[in-house]
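Possible regression after last week's pipeline update?

I re-ran a chain I had predicted before the update to compare outputs. Posting the input and the new output here so someone can diff against the archived version. Not blocking, just want to make sure nothing changed silently.
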Amino acid sequence: MTDFNSEFFENHDIVQAFTPVDMQSAVNTGDYVDLRPYESVWAVLHHAVGTDDDDAIFSFFEATSAGGAGATALASGARVRHKVGATALSAVGQWTTVTRTAATTYDTDPLDNAQNESIIAVEIKASDLSDGFTHIRVDVADTGGNAQLGAMIYILVKPRYTQATPNSPID
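New output (post-update):
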């Protein structure tokens, strides 16, 4: 689908997964979003410099409602893109792509990102959901014993019906 004459927000939506928080205090639970109106969603984590080996671990879930009914682990996240700066992202221009086998978790340890400012984006496709499941949630595990500020947003991509104001992914 090519939409040369459409605005970014006619083909995407951005919603909060979790607000900026010290990610070492507990599991950082994302909100549920409805994938029925969209082809896919990118869970985008932006975190500040932390401590070596306190890397983020993503967990993926599917449910039948925004309230989390029937929630179960979801094998997804086969496409990952990241920018990891040597303490700052200001010198990182290009995304690095990681291709991996879909799984219910994604450990960012191989990126060696905990001690650097990073943006990590993981794609979940609506086609990854099991039959009858409509919503997804992404969590980030407690990052360890040292402070690390981070926040996550969802970028929903390719609405099923392009319009000036796409359908809301929040029930």
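Follow-up from reviewer: compared with the archived run. The domain at 14-159 is CATH 2.60.120 (Jelly Rolls). Marking as no regression found.
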